[in-house]
Automatic annotation (TrEMBL):
<dbReference type="GO" id="GO:0016791">
    <property type="term" value="F:phosphatase activity"/>
</dbReference>
<dbReference type="Pfam" id="PF00072">
    <property type="entry name" value="Response_reg"/>
</dbReference>
<dbReference type="InterPro" id="IPR011006">
    <property type="entry name" value="CheY-like_superfamily"/>
</dbReference>
<dbReference type="InterPro" id="IPR036457">
    <property type="entry name" value="PPM-type-like_dom_sf"/>
</dbReference>
<dbReference type="Pfam" id="PF07228">
    <property type="entry name" value="SpoIIE"/>
</dbReference>
<keyword id="KW-0378">Hydrolase</keyword>
<feature type="domain" description="Response regulatory">
    <location>
        <begin position="22"/>
        <end position="138"/>
    </location>
</feature>
<dbReference type="GO" id="GO:0000160">
    <property type="term" value="P:phosphorelay signal transduction system"/>
</dbReference>
<dbReference type="InterPro" id="IPR052016">
    <property type="entry name" value="Bact_Sigma-Reg"/>
</dbReference>
<dbReference type="InterPro" id="IPR001789">
    <property type="entry name" value="Sig_transdc_resp-reg_receiver"/>
</dbReference>
<protein>
    <submittedName>
        <fullName>SpoIIE family protein phosphatase</fullName>
    </submittedName>
</protein>
<dbReference type="InterPro" id="IPR001932">
    <property type="entry name" value="PPM-type_phosphatase-like_dom"/>
</dbReference>
<feature type="modified residue" description="4-aspartylphosphate">
    <location>
        <position position="71"/>
    </location>
</feature>
<keyword id="KW-0597">Phosphoprotein</keyword>
Length: 426
């Protein structure tokens, strides 16, 4: 049991260095406060006294003690009520709260703990028991403070990650605009028909690209690329490949050459694809490969010459609604050297239209996991037989959304639609 004499003969103590350094003693009895203060001071704690709950509340707000030792029964505000008021301040640092009481009934003890108290001691207070309870409180405070530090560090890390995410998202939005700008025109009307293009990435950016270029007198060059993978590296690859098939710089377009008179003309597409295969393997340090459909249309005759390198077969919807698929399939570009690529030809007649799609369409899954495939594409094209131009490509996306059950497709979707409708000669 603590007595006033215990504080009189001890030397000046060293400051306590545990998690609890500052203790607030709350008791309406001056004698009891002095008894507790004497032992706490001898043990090295900084001690502040309060004679009432109201005074204690003011000192807690001002001084933020680590431990509060409060009598249960006091005039005015009781110890449990003081504890409730302290716990109501969610912004305040956590302090360990011990109630001092003569009550020993379980219901009373439960009431004290429900008010937010961490522990209780029965009066008169035994010094050894008090020291043991303070030590237990220090362990709890140490854990709580370590957790608070960890939470702050985690919160700061999450904030930093959010800032990085926002920065990356901003960059990806800009990259998306730049990639979409690679398609300079989405619709072009020719004397021999209409050309429509569509590019839709599954994320911000993707590995698909479609385009066209002037291939000389009365010839229209076309290409459709699907680079393996998704995201930034695939998009960078498509941007580089677009430079080899540029419509703005024909002398840099590997699919074109000049004849003896200096006029542009298309090169054999199988030779061009073979050259691009060597170029990727020899000059590009990348693990990406890509599928490609490259060729040209003779606008005067409707003769189509293409080379298929792993890309889906072009579909031709005839004027009577019948749908034909062309091409040998072929091997993707950039996987193996020495691969032989094959060109093929077919004819368009007035009223026919040619649709070139990436595998994001034919391999789009339904809710049951079944893929659309060429049979589903045939049904889809027949259902849109009366729709033409850009509205056809928009409706294609709507139909694909219905089939998939969502507009969040797992792969990039790109398309070229060429509708052959030559003007009658005068």
């Amino acid at each position: 049991m603590l007595t006033p004499a215990q504080c009189s003969s001890d030397p000046i103590p060293a400051l306590h260095e545990g998690a609890i350094r500052h203790v607030l003693v709350v008791d309406d009895s001056r004698l009891q406060r002095k008894i507790l203060t004497a032992s706490l001071t001898r043990w090295g704690f900084q001690v502040t006294e309060a004679a009432s709950g109201d005074e204690a509340l003011d000192k807690i707000c001002a001084l933020r003690p680590d431990l509060v030792l409060s009598d249960w029964v006091m005039p005015g505000m009781s110890g449990p009520e003081l504890c409730r008021r302290v716990r109501a301040d969610a912004e305040a640092p956590y302090c360990y709260f011990i109630l001092l009481t003569t009550k020993s009934e379980k219901a009373e003890v439960a009431h004290g703990l429900d008010s937010g108290a961490d522990d209780f001691l029965t009066k008169p207070v035994d010094s050894n028991e008090l020291r043991a309870r303070i030590t237990a409180g220090e362990r709890l405070l140490e854990l709580q403070r370590n957790m608070a530090m960890s939470n702050r560090a985690l919160s700061e890390t999450l904030d930093e990650l959010q800032r990085l995410h926002d920065h990356i998202d901003k960059d990806l939005q800009e990259a998306k605009r730049l990639q979409q700008s690679l398609i300079r025109e989405r619709f072009r009307q020719f004397d021999a028909g209409n050309l429509s293009l569509m590019l839709r990435s599954s994320g911000h950016v993707g590995g698909d690209l479609v385009g066209f270029f002037d291939a000389g007198a009365d010839h229209l060059g076309l290409f459709a690329i699907d680079v393996s993978g998704h995201g930034i590296s695939s998009a960078l690859m498509t941007a580089r490949l677009a430079g080899y098939l540029s419509s703005a710089a024909p002398d840099q377009n590997v699919a074109l050459e000049r004849d003896a008179r200096g006029a542009l003309r298309p090169r054999a597409p199988d030779l061009v694809v073979a050259e691009m295969n060597d170029l990727v393997l020899d000059e590009m340090e990348t693990e990406h490969y890509f599928t490609l459909l490259l060729g040209h249309v003779a606008l005067g005759t409707g003769r189509v010459t293409l080379c298929q390198a792993g890309h889906p077969h072009p579909a031709v919807q005839r004027r009577d609604g019948r749908i034909d698929h062309f091409g040998p399939g072929g091997f993707p570009v950039g996987l193996l050297s020495g691969v032989q690529f094959e060109a093929f030809e077919f004819d368009l007649t007035p009223g026919d239209r040619m649709l070139i799609l990436s595998d994001g369409v034919t391999e789009c899954p339904g809710p049951d996991g079944a893929l659309l495939e060429e049979e589903g594409l045939t049904d889809l094209m027949n259902s849109l037989r009366e729709v033409s131009g850009p509205p056809f490509l928009e409706a294609l996306i709507w139909k694909l959304t219905e089939f998939n059950g969502s507009d969040d497709f797992p792969d990039d979707v790109s398309a070229i639609l060429f509708e052959y409708a030559p003007q009658p000669k005068a």
